[in-house]
Amino acid sequence: MIIRNITIKGHDYINVPANTETLIEMGLNEQEAAAEVNKAKVALAMEARKRAYHLESDPLFIEAIRKEAMGDLDGAAVARNLAVSLVEQIKSRYPVVDNA
Q1: Helix (H, G, I), strand (E, B) or coil at 2
Q2: In terms of Cα–Cα distance, which of 41, 49, 44, 36 is closest to 8?
Q3: Which of 42, 45, 59, 67 is a Cys-bridge partner for 75, taking CB atoms 3.0 to 4.6 Å apart?
């Protein structure tokens, strides 16, 4: 896991390993390092969710909108329910735990 951008004691760093030991060596205290690692974990999970939504649930939401516009209300409801179910599955697959 990588922290893309971080400023420590006035110095800007890019692509820093997101582990507490490295961040402490770079000048953060233990609490600050843990918070940065947590932020990196949350960002990673959110990126994974975004990708999964795009590939899995969004097409079904679009299908539901299309079917509703075409008058297929039953088909729209089925597609929408599948999409909502996929969103819940994605959230459980990529949990966001904020330990800050």
Answers
A1: strand
A2: 36
A3: 67
pTM of the model: 0.79
Q: What is the rounded distance in angstroms from the CA atom of residue 75 to the CA atom of residue 26? A: 56
- H or E segment and range at residue 97: none
CB 46 within 8 A of CB 32: no
Which whole-number Å values give the CA distances from 96 to 38, 72, 89, 91, in the listed order? 10, 36, 13, 8
- d(CA 43, CA 45) in angstroms, rounded, equals 5
Residue 99's pLDDT is 67
Rounded Cα–Cα distance for residues 51 and 45 (Å): 10
Backbone angles phi, psi at 94, to 5 degrees: -125, 75
Over residues 42-65, the pLDDT tens digits come to 999 999 999 999 999 999 999 999
pLDDT of residue 97: 82
Q: Tell me the one-letter amino acid at 45.
A: A
